[in-house]
């Protein structure tokens, strides 16, 4: 295993190549909910490869020097596929919102570093979703977050992005 897969706090310090049922379910529900609640002002994509080759974010000790891939991302102005091109494999335009969903074998420290890298890349808001704890941390700056918990909160509010979502719908069975 490479250095980026060292275990940190009993989790993989890097991208988890294995999916999980909870991760997949939460990703689908959250993406659908975001589209339903904010789809009139934002455009969403899942697992979109963002081109970071022109940036040096090595201080965050992420897996790749060339691309970074949020579980869900949102754009105010969605990237345009150029004429005479069928699709884009990587996108150089950074999203306005990046969402990371914690996998059961993944280190939370890795996702926090990844969130800090997103801010350096120009992302305006970042979320870390923890399906096991049923929490969502909404970051408006690298070290400034508001945490939402299914037992305490009715909705998740991202004031910067103008998003308000019912938390129960993300984690419902």
What order do the SSEs take from the amino end to the carboxyl end, as H and E? EEHEEEEEHEEEEEH
Main-sheet strand order equals 3-6-7-8-9-10
Uncertain regions: pLDDT < 50 for 5+ in a row?
A: 1-9
Per CATH, the class reads: Alpha Beta
Number of separate strands = 12
Percent in helix: 10-25%
Q: Look at the helices and sheets and give the structural class.
A: alpha+beta
C-alpha geometry: globular
**What do we call the CATH topology?**
tt1808, chain A
Cα distance, first to last residue?
A: 35 Å
Question: Oligomeric status of the shown chains?
Answer: single chain
User: Compute the gyration radius: what is it?
Assistant: 16 Å
Quick check: average pLDDT?
A: 90
In CATH terms, the superfamily is tt1808, chain A
Classify the beta-strand content into a percent band.
25-35%
